[in-house]
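2024-03-11 09:14:02 INFO receiving multi-entity request
2024-03-11 09:14:02 INFO entity count = two
2024-03-11 09:14:03 INFO echoing inputs for audit
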Amino acid sequence: MNDLPNPRQLARDPEAFEAFYRAHVGEVQRFIARRVDDPQVAADLTADVFVAVIERASTYRQERGSTLAWVFGIARNVVSERGRTRARQLKLASRIRGRALLDEDALLRIEERLDAESDARRVFAAMADIPDADRELLELVALDGLEPDDVAAHLNIEPGTARVRLHRARRRLTAAMAADQLIP
Amino acid sequence: MNTTDELDVFESRLLDELKGVVADGARHRRSTWVRWAAAAAAVVTATGAVAFSSLTHASPAYALTPNADGSITVTVHRLEGAAALAADLKAHGINADVTFNAPGTQCQDNRGTPAPLRHVTMGATMSEQGQALILPAQMLLPGETLVIETSWPEPGVWALGSGIVQGPVAPCVPEPADQPVVPTETPNQSPSPIACGDLPGGGPQGIPADEQCVVMVPASPQPTK
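2024-03-11 09:21:47 INFO inference complete, emitting structure
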């Protein structure tokens, strides 16, 4: 992805944005599918994430982790703010109603994607009680497959600190999932 | 690069919509700065704008006028004397960083740490004489700087944008100006939290020439309700 434009250009250059979108739209949709199970909501959130990417393009810092970590960080905020008064919380200047852009085939593809990520959503749900500081780290590593050092850079914490927190969060997650299985 | 047919209908439609957002100028992408710039640009639009170099040069480039309530009115007639204006503001107790960009250019984003969230109400008026900013008394906290920059909402038309920075302010590195940042009213958009049109008597497209705009600094969560 090294030939992709700097994300800071995304808000200015439609061509740069298109290249970025094509490279990341699949990852963003899978990211969302690991967190929500409603295809209409997933379509809305996909639109919201990319609008937020445009609006936050100037926040990208090359030294703060990979482009994907930056995108996932934005996506995580968008998804976690879902359910509040979305436009107000996100301060989105432009809203695109993603579900209005769906056709039957696209809806089917989203449903297939949601089916494929059902296990991930169970893990995501089990993370609910982990304190947010550790949870973001755990989500991005264990659920979304980013490298711990990359997430550490994104979160602006030392790699060693990240590993300690990751270990702590994994233990809590394991305990939470074990507790879930005790329920008949 | 991938080809279009690798995107499904949803992804292609969404791409088109998003490219429209980018091309539309992504009005709010400059966070703190654009909020004021957008308000100022709206005034420009409503009043016919300040055309670059169309004004007489017989008068001073700018003027500072203390008001009875402690506020100061800064009227900029021409984009000249930025350093002198900053010095004059300093003499009036306002720590300012002023940049008058060349036509079609603007400063980079994020020149400093935005000041803590609070309301700051500034006046903005536009006339054939130029643009005026009414700076309320004690608008800055210790260590803060009022950063004033030029924006170019359309070719040949300037407006002043501003924000408040806490701590050091990075020098301006001119870059090509954004697309117009004039707020527009379209369905499915949340109202701009800062646009002049939010104010009583100021419809999104019909802002009176002397309407006052409200600026919130910085772009942090808006107070709800």
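2024-03-11 09:21:48 INFO post-check: Residues 26-56, 179-225 of chain B have pLDDT under 50 and may be disordered.
2024-03-11 09:21:48 INFO post-check: Chain B has one domain: 27-217.
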